[in-house]
């Protein structure tokens, strides 16, 4: 094994004869000499033996513990080494150096050890700090040990404390910044991490102190990128390329691929595309394909090349899965499954399917005269959609779930279903060494892409849960079936929703899908999922081969979600009566995205204008209220207005006859709300006259002329809306 350090023996010149009394002095000298010789000859097992003898004879001789531990480490027995220190710190409980040394070794070798009680080590580190609070290394090793034990917040606290005690110290700031950047980059695995608000400032400071440190400059860029400071992140990556770009081809290409992704988020699509292509030319690796596909997805609407790159990335990923576990895939050769019907016919022993919408699947919805464009036609804007087929799928036994998106896999097969090439395998653990959590309950999974995002929760995961409730969870024969949900903190709206009394029946039936990128869950007794798949022959061309359409739910969803929430309001007596004459108040809901991406640069002025023009009819929605309060706001709306963003998902809660007014992105790539409006059978205005924002950018300030235009469109939409006149009978 690779031992990270080679500690030498402490050169002890101790007159141990004074301590010992039962054994003649020269005998002790002899044993010690033999131990030292054995150590010098690299006969570590023998050295261990002698040091152990000495420990028995002279239990109060401190330095002997250190020597014994060093010898244990040399035999490769990290656990035995740590055990010796554990004994020593309990014996010499007010000895600073021995605590410090133990903590250091824990930090350096803890990942190789089989640490049963990490608290012991953490306590030793805490004690080291309190015994020698001025010793900088105590903080560094404490933080390291906490990191190894997965104590993210405690580690952050130790770094912050060290930073306060030793200000402007690169030795502290360097690992502190690196840790912040790593946590930010893998936030889904640490949803409850309390990161300092000035994370990238810490990195910026140390990057300035260590101008030749390429790693730290990269961490700074990562912190900025994840913190959505795209412009600054781009500048730092460009600086990195300038300073270090000619050193190591591999690192440079990696930075270029990351820069390409940052550039597309910064709205610089041409340079992003150019860099992504350069990376592909160097190597058509998974990560380069991923960057190139992302650039095309965000930069070019319905891009054929983007889809092809996505398919290539997925194929490359499936081909590089190395799992050969007996239970999963003894042959080690993996494939992707896109069609549950075919799979169930081929392998009735593995899975079975129930077709949930056979009466409506493959029917067309939408209308050719919707949306109404105010301004130029938006290229590729879809109008008609083919209803997806909705299935309840039962994987009968020994099925596995892992990765951020909860990818189902078993029998050498990755089940992509509705997500096709966009299944999201970037965080799928590809090897056999991933720990497996055995689940012996039958379960349903609602895990999917970006569950923490409001749109993906309300439009995708929640409807799946409602269908699973109806077809599985509510049935007496499935009383034992559990539900897989993300860790606490990942999806606030999920917690709010599950907090509704409508879901009280799930109490004691939840299983947390924790650390999904580093853990594999094995369902020994089977797993249910609901999934929807678009027709192979997509006559309208709006769903197939689109990196975005995989996230658009079928029309069927709207016949479930809307009534579910309206019933919840009725039950609580908060369903708005929109037929009464007094209900013009707050029937125009403007969805504000203040400060967020895709908000107007002059959001306050826009709101002031709309307030003045529409008076009491207007409600500015900021999203601070609880979920059901929010549902009630939208259930009262005749017109919902907003820039493209998750807040528009709330349109799903409106009553029949409501109208959506939206300002598109530029380029407009994700038409999820077009699908939503069509699926609900409603109408929408797309105000393309107003300059748009790119995918994660800001909308430019709205001019006075455009404010007036927006106001006029809202007025038209209001005229067109028929809330309270139609459709309610469907739900009553
Ligand atoms: C799945 O396969 C079946 C049988 O070959 C076929 O009829 C069906 O159209 C396919 N479904 C999709 C969504 O492609």
Approximate helicity band: 40-55%
- Report strand order across the widest sheet: 1-9-8-7-14-10
H/I helix tally: 25
Residues in β-strands, percent: 5-15%
Question: Distance between termini?
Answer: 70 Å
The main sheet comes to: 6 strands, mixed
* Distinct ligands, ions and cofactors found in the model: 2-acetamido-2-deoxy-beta-D-glucopyranose
- Please tell me how large the radius of gyration is: 31 Å
Classification by helices and strands: alpha/beta
- The unreliable regions are 1-6, 728-732
InterPro entries: Glyco_transf_61_cat (IPR049625), Glycosyltransferase_61 (IPR007657), TPR-like_helical_dom_sf (IPR011990)
GO molecular function, one term: glycosyltransferase activity
Signal peptide: 1-22
Organism: Chytriomyces confervae
Write a structural description.
The protein has 732 residues and is of the alpha/beta class. Among the domains are: 323-364 and 385-551, no CATH class; 555-720, 3-Layer(aba) Sandwich (Rossmann fold). Helices cover 45% and strands 11% of the residues. The chain contains 25 helices and 20 strands. The strands form four sheets. A six-stranded mixed sheet has the order 1-9-8-7-14-10, with helices on one face. Strand 8 (407-410) and strand 9 (413-415) form a beta hairpin. Helix 1 (25-40) runs antiparallel to helix 2. The longest helix is centred in the middle third of the chain and has 20 residues, at 454-473. The radius of gyration is 31 Å and the shape is globular. The N and C termini lie far apart (70 Å). The model is unreliable at 1-6 and 728-732 (pLDDT under 50). Residues 339, 341-342, 389, 533, 535-536 line the site of 2-acetamido-2-deoxy-beta-D-glucopyranose.
